[in-house]
Amino acid sequence: NAGVTQTPKFRVLKTGQSMTLLCAQDMNHEYMYWYRQDPGMGLRLIHYSVGEGTTAKGEVPDGYNVSRLKKQNFLLGLESAAPSQTSVYFCASSALAVYNEQFFGPGTRLTVL
Amino acid sequence: SQQGEEDPQALSIQEGENATMNCSYKTSINNLQWYRQNSGRGLVHLILIRSNEREKHSGRLRVTLDTSKKSSSLLITASRAADTASYFCATVLNDYKLSFGAGTTVTVRA
User: Fold this and answer.
1) pLDDT value for B97
2) What would the pLDDT profile of A10-56 be if each residue is shown by its tens digit?
3) Exposed, middle or buried by CB within 10 Å (0-12, 13-18, 19+), for B7?
4) Residues A47, A60: contact at Cβ < 8 Å?
5) Chain B: closest CA distance from residue A76 (Å)
């Protein structure tokens, strides 16, 4: 099993460009999450999904959109990138509600110039 | 806003020594989890302790929870170089969200 994978690993964007980050999990997990990690701030939840076809806002959703068309995939989109979105983005999944452990992907390092 | 705060922010110890880090939180929780992050990698779940538990062990890890003080501690015994990482506590506030602290960076010197 690959677990949770993220594509791409690194990306550099110019201000105003758009991009999509892809997260895939092969553990048949219902719940999926997108976080961003900034120095000294831990992880902050951007959006999450409790099942195929559902999405919900987390702590810092502005400037991001998500889609969960298939159970195994969770996409994070930036429509018009800003330098404040420079960060490391992590995807995670869990089998049940968050009382269970979350499994994390390796991260995507995004720089917006 | 972050629910949990780890203390200290950084810790440097000699191989073989024990490492202790603490987590304080603000509101009542269902459970508290500890994660490890090696440099440049994703987080890895270490241990979960429920609000009705006071202590839990997993290998060289020992976690305590004091709900009256709203605090938890993670003890790593007989540390190894491979334990060099950042450690995060995460509190569960509702069904779907973990709230992470800023982490403790542990360096184990050979």
Assistant:
1) 81
2) 999 999 999 999 999 999 999 999 999 998 778 999 999 999 999 99
3) middle
4) no
5) 17
Which of A42, A58, A102 is nearest residue B2 as measured by Cβ atoms? A42
Adjacency order of strands within the sheet including B71-76 = B4-7, B19-25, B71-76, B61-66, B55-58
Interchain pair B88, A92: CB under 8 A: no
Does residue A98 surpass a pLDDT of 70?
A: no
Phi, psi of A84 (to 5 degrees): -65, -10
Q: B73-95 burial string, b = 16+ CB within 10 Å, else e?
A: bbebeebeeebbbbbbbbbbbee
- Interface contact A104-B42, CB threshold 8 A: yes
Shortest distance, CA A89 to any CA of chain B (angstroms): 10
- Check CB contact under 8 Å for A41 and B30: no
Q: Which two tokens stand for residue A24?
A: 């895939």
**Residues paired with A35 in a beta bridge:** A45, A90
Residue A61's pLDDT is 97
* Token output for B77: 């015994």
Confidence label for A83 from pLDDT (cuts 50, 70 and 90): very high
Position A5: which residue type?
A: T
Distance from CA of B82 to the nearest CA of A (A): 18
